[in-house]
Amino acid sequence: MIKYIIKRFFMMIATIFVIATLTFFLMHSIPGSPLESDRTTNPQIQANLEKFYHLDDPLPIQYVNYLKSIVTFDFGPSIKKPNDSVNSLIERGFPISFELGMVSILVAVISGLILGTLAALKHNGIIDYLAMTIAVVGISIPNFILATLLIQVFAGSLGWLPAATWSGPSYMILPTLALATGPMAIIARLTRSSMLEVLTQDYIKMAKAKGLKPFRVIFRHAMRNALMPIVTIMGTMLAGILTGTFIIERVFAIPGMGKYFVESISNRDYPVIMGTTVFYSAFLVFMLFLVDIVYGLLDPRIKLHNKEGESS
Amino acid sequence: MTNITRQNPEDDWFKPLSKDKASAEKVVRPSLSYMADAWRRLRKNKLAMMGLFFLVALMLMAVVVPWISPYSVTSTDYKNQNLAPSLSNWFGTDEAGRDVFVRTWYGARISLFVGIVAALIDCVIGIIYGGIAGYKGGKVDMVMMRIVEVLYGIPNLLVVILLMVVMGPSLTTIIIAIALTGWVGMARIVRGQVLQIKNYEFVTASKSFGAKSSRIIRKNLLPNTMGPIIVQITLTVPSAIFTEAFLSFLGLGVSVPFASWGVMANDALPVILSGDWWRLFFPALFISLTMFAFNVLGDGLQDALDPKLRG
């Protein structure tokens, strides 16, 4: 198990390194200096500015400094917002994005599990068809489309909920719904199929024969095993939800990380683009790492597999 | 031990059939090729067939409508801004007086084009990479798969956004960005399949007849990985369409006079609270229907192409 964790850990470091390098060279392959828009400034100011942002150093030195800045977690100043450093933008935006993302994941997992389990228990019944219809529809509607439709209906026509910004629990309902529906649909489908499989197993019959209450059979015996496939896709799902917050934040005008990221793209604010990309991907890769470890703890086959010294 | 008394079966229960050589050799059912059988099973899946029908109709309409319509996709008409759907403008008009109906079908062109071309490029890169890794095995496979594992952890959407910033928004760069990040999944699937199939007897037989590697890959390995590859393509296309819409929605997609569903949805964003519902509704409807159709078709193909379920 420890070997497995160490392997995963190095994989994570490698991935972050690749992302950081990729980001750096991609941003530096754009012709022209990021300061070019300030054409009116005289050459001396221009040179001073370049010195301030270390843009006059040769590329390899910039690269090394950049890697250092990632390790020490200091992404430097923003170019277009002189009063802000990239760090302060992250500090301001990330907690909001994190909250939105985590609440959405919780909503998605809980409602997906309930929907999927109900569908499996009433196999081929009305609830099953209803749940699977919701699931297929949920998978088919992109989150940003759903977000705009939700605004149009609940904030526009009905006027029940606020359409934008972020200043209280009622502001969270629509963005959370928009983000959670897709993953919920995927979880519901997976839960249904793995539940159906598990429910035919002998140990479930055994548990029922012992006279256990159906509730206990489902939650203590069936659910545990049915959860495995869901843990497997948890990683990609997390990535989906967290990058999804970018676009949802834009639609709902929520002042999270996504807002600063999108802004920095349209402003060509390179330090912010690089900083937020690296920070966000590092966070995602770390979450994937955690999911892998949880998976390793839950699935005894991984422990056995590694004892044989085989890798895959 | 209790004695079980058996009743003798009636004698005529087990009469041997008359031996007739001709009827014994007769083929009862025509032998079906893999694809014909898959098609037979796919046809039974109503939902998947609906999806297929919708997609074929969508492609036809996408080609025909912008071609024969009296309205043009790009030309503006400021006398007819933001008209509600009517007999002359079936889906209404947008803020520059452009006909939403024509733009929706033109958007279908862009979305389908991006989706299909990106999926095909993914497919080619993935097959070559995964095929080599799986076929060579050993050290080569290990190194190649480590690279894939590292790449697999990278959040695709972020890299795509970054690539779009660097290359500038256009149709070609969208396709390049999606293809560059999307081949990893396909490579993993092809590699897994090849690894499994290359140990089967018929491959050994081919080898023992002196077949070259290229022949084995073309004739033995590829046809047998076709099923999972086709399924993967039907799942890559909608995700590419989603990515295109996502990028256009962020303002990184095709530029404004031209239409894609994402661009149209983005343009509709400022007016959704003012009651001009048709601006958002039609592109949203068509993105969702297309994703739905590809998803159910993919599900259906997955069942139909699975040789284990072959009836």
TrEMBL record, chain A:
Record field: transmembrane: 9-30, 100-121, 128-151, 171-190, 226-248, 278-298
Pfam families tied to this protein: BPD_transp_1 (PF00528), BPD_transp_1_N (PF19300)
InterPro entries: BPD_transp_1_N, MetI-like, MetI-like_sf
ABC transmembrane type-1 domain location: 94-295
Keyword Membrane applies: yes
Lipid bilayer topology: Multi-pass membrane protein
Localisation per UniProt entry: Cell membrane
GO BP terms: transmembrane transport
GO cellular-component term (any): plasma membrane
UniProt similarity note: Belongs to the binding-protein-dependent transport system permease family.
Protein name (record): Peptide ABC transporter permease
Automatic annotation (TrEMBL), chain B:
Transmembrane segment boundaries: 47-68, 110-135, 147-165, 171-190, 247-265, 277-297
Example of a GO cellular component annotation carried by this entry: plasma membrane
Localization, UniProt: Cell membrane
PROSITE patterns in UniProt: ABC_TM1
Domain ABC transmembrane type-1 residue range list: 108-298
InterPro entries: BP-dependent_transpt_permease (IPR050366), MetI-like (IPR000515), MetI-like_sf (IPR035906), OppC_N (IPR025966)
CDD domains given in the database record: TM_PBP2
Principal location listed in the UniProt entry: membrane
Swiss-Prot/TrEMBL keywords: Cell membrane, Membrane, Transmembrane, Transmembrane helix, Transport
Protein name, per record: Diguanylate cyclase
Native source species: Kurthia sibirica
